[in-house]
Write a structure and sequence with these properties.
The structure holds 2 protein chains of 2 kinds. By secondary structure, chain A is largely without helices or strands. Helix content of chain A is 12%, strand content 10%. Chain B has 3 domains: 9-164, P-loop containing nucleotide triphosphate hydrolases (Rossmann fold), CATH 3.40.50; 178-282, Helix Hairpins (Orthogonal Bundle); 284-646, no CATH class. Classes of the chains: A little secondary structure, B alpha/beta.
């Protein structure tokens, strides 16, 4: 996932982290580089979000 | 027969998504293994290759942005450099973003690594009008440079040739500005052991407060470390405010020097629209009008008029009032004859009539339109530019551009934003940001309702906006004067501006809406039950009666007390209460404006209060709570007197 603020790649293993403020399990990923909170889509939406891997990526 | 164990190593490093893995696969073919780096869950690929009859072990490291690790992946990549001591280090960069990636090349040169620069994805860069003179770049940097299009194996033969003929480590690093250089040389002079990154890079990393490197030096220097510690401490202290900024600026300056004559961009005289827009967004003269345009069309027109107006009118006024509510209430009332149960399900504060209706018909369309605008702006890369734009103003209130992150997130949800204040560098910044979030940053639903209601009354929205900006700046400025500490320094690498992608925007908007809805629905239902219980027991009347003198002092009708009580449960719940008051025709333009100002400034909701306690401690949280409550009512009172005296909104 690319951070919506600093545009750096957030490693896949950075876990979901809810703030715990409301007791719900909101799905959010905190960027380790800038701290910005990115929405973490569920499985269905994630499938839509993921583009076909570019050959040049890696 | 077993291959020799001590094969020379080729290590690939670089940012994510620059083509490292493609190069790795091209070099190694199918002889690769993927395993977790010892003690971590980070995968590292290794393989073998033969070049000019010589056998090499090849390692593909996880993506890294600099030698200062932030993530576990970067830590592993650096560990490989520290522990594996490669014979050849291939730094793979994306030609299209070479200016952003060369600072790491300079860092690796500084670390004395046996470096070859691989400028990959050349074809796409050329398509963008970038023309490289790679021999010139090689001469400027003093290391071998190879241009490649690895997906087509273009440049592979040249790269293999350069690897097999590699001659020694890179030249000494270019010195930084004199004062910084003096400190680096002084500290590096104390380092006597054989460091994998060399004394210079090791000294710089220690100055940048890299704990791992400092521990390594402590271990290596042993009894000599007590001589180093005071020097290091004095450098860290004297450069505590701006060291990272200075190093970053120096590397950027060197990068431009290295690219001088080596990169020609046809776009230099006529930069593309994205580049021009990026500059306009950060320049105060053009950036502020641009911000006002974004706020006007994005928030006022789309969220306020369309979301809180058209959509809510349709959902609440037509769909719920005319079709869903009558059927639902009749169905729920038909379930039982028991009065208190009927009240609980479909009464004044019933689960359906208050909880579900507020969540679906009022709040969801507003946060939906807000998150759509938010996701579009986010996907264009506007927010980092906003951070640069407001940095100067934020400095006056004890913050820096970095505080744009919690402030922007606060418009989504203040509770989450309060947690994000922990990413600010100093305690002073964290406290100021927490106060301002609790006070003057309305959450998306509250903002949407207020925009929708006030836009119908000429002048009202302007008064609200001026009061909010005034309070934000005044309280920020006073907090900065009262709280001791230095002004923070902010810098960040600005990512390219881009056209928002429809799929990204939709998925992010839907994800945010889903999270928000799942968060508020149970809370709205619980709040309904509490209010219902209060009504049935008579407690609510007592609380409302208790608040009535305060509310009437603001010139508001007694019924407005309920909106303030709602607001304590959730900011958006309170805003929805205000919506009901207005649609019932209970508020004059002056009363509406005063209520909107007071409710926006009014105490943070329960969740935000708990988060403030968690992040800042009970004492600070309670102090902020009482301060904000007092200030909200005081401001409302003064505003009411002012509006009545001047007759501004009459």
């Amino acid at each position: 996932m690319i951070c919506g603020f600093c545009a750096k790649e957030i490693p896949d293993k950075v876990g979901l982290n809810s703030c715990g403020g409301c007791g719900s399990r909101c799905r959010k990923i905190h960027c380790p580089y800038c701290g910005y909170v990115n929405p973490a889509p569920g499985k269905f939406l994630e499938r839509l979000l993921k583009s076909k891997p570019k050959k040049e990526d890696g | 027969m077993r291959e020799e164990v001590t094969q020379p190593k080729i290590v690939l490093v670089g940012n994510p998504n620059v083509g490292k893995s493609v190069l790795f696969n091209v070099l190694t073919g199918s002889y690769t293994t993927v395993s977790n780096y010892p003690g971590t869950s980070v995968e590292v690929s290794s393989g073998r290759c033969r070049i000019d009859g010589r056998s090499y072990e090849v390692l593909d490291t996880p993506g890294m942005y600099s030698l200062m690790p932030i993530t576990e992946e970067e830590r592993v990549a650096r560990k490989i450099l520290l522990e594996d001591r490669p014979e050849i280090l291939l730094h793979v960069v994306d030609a299209r973003n070479i200016e952003r990636m060369l600072p790491m090349t300079l860092q690796l040169i500084e670390a004395g690594q046996p470096l070859i620069l691989v400028v990959n994805i050349l074809d796409e860069a050329e398509r963008l009008g970038m023309k490289f003179d790679l021999p010139q770049l090689q001469q400027n940097l003093g290391i071998p440079v190879v241009g490649t299009v690895m997906k087509r194996r273009q440049g592979l033969a040249e790269l293999q040739h350069v690897i097999s003929n590699y001659q020694g480590p890179p030249p000494p690093a270019v010195p930084y500005a004199a004062d910084l250089e003096t400190d680096i040389v002084r500290l590096a002079g104390f380092l006597t052991a054989d460091y994998p990154l060399g004394p210079r890079a090791t000294a710089i990393l220690m100055m940048q407060r890299d704990r791992e490197v400092e521990e390594m030096v402590q271990l290596e220097e042993g009894e000599g470390f007590p001589l180093i510690a005071p020097v290091l401490h004095s450098i860290k202290f004297s450069r505590r405010a701006d060291l990272n900024l200075q190093i970053s600026l120096e590397r950027k300056r060197h990068t431009r020097k290295m690219l001088d004559g080596a990169l020609q961009q046809e776009i230099a005289d006529h930069p593309p629209f994205s580049e021009r827009l990026s500059r306009l967004a950060m320049n105060p003269i053009t950036g502020v009008p641009l911000l006002l345009l974004v706020l006007y069309f994005g928030l006022y027109q789309f969220v306020g008029n369309f979301g809180a107006g058209t959509l809510v009118d349709f959902l609440e006024g037509t769909l719920f009032e005319e079709y869903i509510n009558p059927a639902a209430i009749s169905f729920l009332n038909g379930l039982t004859d028991i009065y208190w149960l009927r009240e609980l399900l479909a009464g004044e504060y019933g689960l359906w009539t208050l909880g579900v209706r507020y969540a679906i018909a009022l709040i969801l369309p507003i946060v939906g339109t807000f998150f759509l605008v938010f996701s579009i702006l986010e996907d264009t890369g506007y927010f980092p530019r906003l951070a640069m734009l407001v940095d100067r103003v934020f400095k006056q209130i004890g913050l820096s551009g970095r505080a744009v992150i919690p402030m922007v997130l606060g418009f989504g949800c203040d509770t989450m934003a309060t947690m994000v204040t922990r990413t600010l560098e100093t305690r002073r910044e964290r406290v100021i940001a927490t106060v301002l979030l609790a006070l003057a940053i309305p959450c998306s639903a509250q903002l949407g309702v207020i925009l929708g209601l006030l836009s119908a009354v000429p002048g009202s929205l302007l008064v609200w906006l001026l009061v909010m900006i005034g309070i934000f700046l005044l309280i920020g400025f006073l907090s900065a004067q009262v709280l001791p500490g230095e002004n923070p320094v902010f810098y960040m690498e600005i990512p390219p501006m881009r056209l928002p992608q429809l799929r990204n925007v939709l998925v992010k908007t839907l994800t945010r809406m889903q999270s928000y809805f799942l968060e508020i629905l149970p809370l709205f239902l619980v709040a309904s039950v509490i209010l219902w219980a209060g009504k049935m027991s008579g407690l609510l009347d007592i609380v409302v009666d208790g608040m009535t003198p305060v509310v009437t002092a603001l010139g508001l009708p007694p019924q407005a007390s309920a909106a303030f009580i709602f607001g304590f449960f959730r900011r958006d719940f309170g805003a929805a209460g205000l919506y009901d008051l207005q649609t019932a025709g209970l508020l004059s333009p002056t009363q509406l404006t005063v209520a909107a100002v007071t409710l926006t400034l009014f105490v943070p909701c329960i969740a935000q209060l708990l988060m403030m306690k968690k992040e800042r401690g009970l004492k600070t949280a309670l102090s902020i709570f009482f301060f904000v409550s007092l200030l909200a009512f005081a401001t409302g009172w003064v505003l009411n007197k002012f509006l009545l005296t001047t007759g501004l909104l009459s």
